[in-house]
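Students often ask why inverse folding is considered easier than folding. One informal answer: many sequences map to the same fold, so there is more than one right answer. In these notes we will look at a single instance of the problem. The structure comes first.
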């Protein structure tokens, strides 16, 4: 019990505290700091806060906001924020959580498991184990707004800002790059890699777009493969296309089952179907179907045409002869009405030089699609092409003139298949020289028949002469 003198001293001390409203606890008689209500100084002792079990802490009646205690069960400091108790530190931190504890980070749930767990809304979503980052879901979305609309779609991987942002039920898709696959909703089995690759796709399935803006406008087209920056950029609904190369098939919209390989190959095609273009700039100016163009800047001018090389080409070699399909089972309306000598007599064999530069201009070999204006513009050919054309223009050629052959055949009513007449103003006349073999054979047969007849006539004449000689009297 305090003595009367001690009670008097305590009362005086309390009155003094009330007067200054600040307290300093120290051993150097220093006044409390001006900003502190309680200023504790020591170099060899600490300050203890109330220590209690978790149950005791939870049993504190009406705790004040800011009340601080040490939980001896959990070895953590807790403070009351006015609504809940919150942890502010621990000797060995293992757990960080929000106010209601359903969103948290666990550094170790079980002893020595060496794992970090991340929970949202009471469910564990991710974990870090060794060098792996595991996700407790069949989907992986990484990036702002990536896969944000996905509801039922499974087995998707979206990486990048807004990738697959509209996806709802689409499954088994892989999108990588800013806005890649942005518009996809229910499309499945797509793979898009690159800035806005396949960004407009909504329901298209089984597409592979690789490159910045590759397949950028595709909406419902299926089974397409576009590899290269802006390859198939404006494709919308077409299917079964394969475009490989920078700007390959860029303006294709609804053309189906095309194969374009090479920078700018098939660049101007929009609706043409079943084409195969191989080479940089191959079939650049065309919009035809069922055509094949092979070679850099090779140009087709009509449907169902095959073109190999360009105006500058000077030689074409293969190790065997071409085989032309010729099966009697698939020929009908057969007639023996081939013109022979009557046709051959009208042909005029000539020598000539090619106007290679004029042919190149006519075929538009030096034009390129301006992707900004979507129009064709002429570009200057490089030095090698110019030199090759110049060299070819000096070669003396031997042959016929297609227009003259056509006129000759028409003049005798012979529909000669050796003349390849262009189907439009952009095409050029051609001759199938192998076809000349048939009227030449016919001409030889006619000459042979005449020769046989002459021989027969000569034999008769010889007999007649012999008879006459027998009737002449001898001396």
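Output (designed amino acids):
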């Amino acid at each position: 019990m305090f003595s009367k003198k001690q009670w008097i001293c305590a009362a005086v001390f309390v009155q003094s505290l009330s007067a200054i409203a600040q307290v300093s606890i120290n051993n150097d008689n220093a006044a409390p700091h001006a900003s502190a209500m309680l200023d504790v100084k020591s170099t060899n002792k600490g300050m203890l806060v109330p220590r209690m079990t978790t149950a005791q802490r939870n049993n504190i009646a009406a705790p004040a906001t800011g009340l601080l205690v040490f939980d001896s069960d959990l070895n953590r400091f807790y403070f009351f924020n006015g609504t809940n108790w919150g942890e502010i530190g621990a000797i060995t931190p293992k757990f960080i959580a929000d106010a209601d504890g359903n969103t948290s980070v666990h550094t170790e749930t079980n002893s020595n498991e060496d794992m970090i767990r991340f929970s949202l809304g009471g469910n564990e979503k991710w974990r870090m184990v060794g060098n792996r980052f595991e996700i407790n879901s069949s989907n992986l979305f990484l990036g702002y707004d990536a896969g944000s609309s996905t509801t039922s779609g499974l087995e998707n991987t979206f990486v990048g800002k807004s990738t697959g942002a509209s996806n709802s039920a689409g499954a088994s898709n892989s999108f990588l790059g800013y806005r890649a696959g942005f518009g996809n909703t229910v499309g499945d089995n797509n793979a898009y890699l690159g800035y806005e690759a396949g960004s407009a796709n909504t329901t298209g399935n089984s597409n592979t777009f690789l490159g910045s803006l590759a397949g950028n406008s595709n909406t419902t087209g299926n089974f397409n493969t576009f590899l290269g920056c802006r390859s198939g950029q404006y494709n919308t609904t077409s299917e079964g296309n394969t475009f490989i190369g920078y700007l390959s098939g860029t303006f294709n919209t609804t053309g189906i089952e095309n194969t374009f390989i090479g920078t700018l190959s098939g660049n101007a095609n929009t609706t043409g179907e079943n084409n195969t273009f191989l080479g940089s700039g191959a079939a650049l100016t065309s919009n035809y179907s069922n055509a094949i163009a092979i070679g850099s800047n090779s140009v087709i001018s009509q449907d169902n045409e095959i073109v190999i090389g360009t105006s500058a080409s000077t030689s074409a070699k293969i190790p065997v002869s071409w085989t032309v399909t010729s099966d009697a089972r698939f020929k009908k309306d057969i007639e023996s009405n081939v013109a022979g000598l009557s046709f051959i007599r009208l042909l005029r064999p000539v020598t000539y030089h090619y106007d290679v530069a004029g042919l190149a201009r006519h075929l538009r070999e030096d034009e390129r699609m301006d992707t900004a204006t979507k129009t064709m513009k002429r570009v200057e050919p490089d030095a090698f092409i110019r030199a090759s054309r110049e060299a070819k223009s000096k070669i003396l050629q031997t042959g016929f003139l297609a227009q003259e052959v056509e006129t000759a055949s028409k003049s005798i009513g012979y529909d000669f298949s050796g003349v390849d007449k262009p189907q439009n103003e952009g095409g050029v006349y051609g001759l199938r020289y192998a076809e000349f073999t048939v009227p030449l054979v016919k001409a030889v047969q006619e000459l042979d028949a005449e020769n046989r007849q002459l021989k027969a006539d000569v034999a008769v004449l010889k007999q007649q002469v012999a008879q006459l000689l027998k009737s002449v009297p001898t001396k």
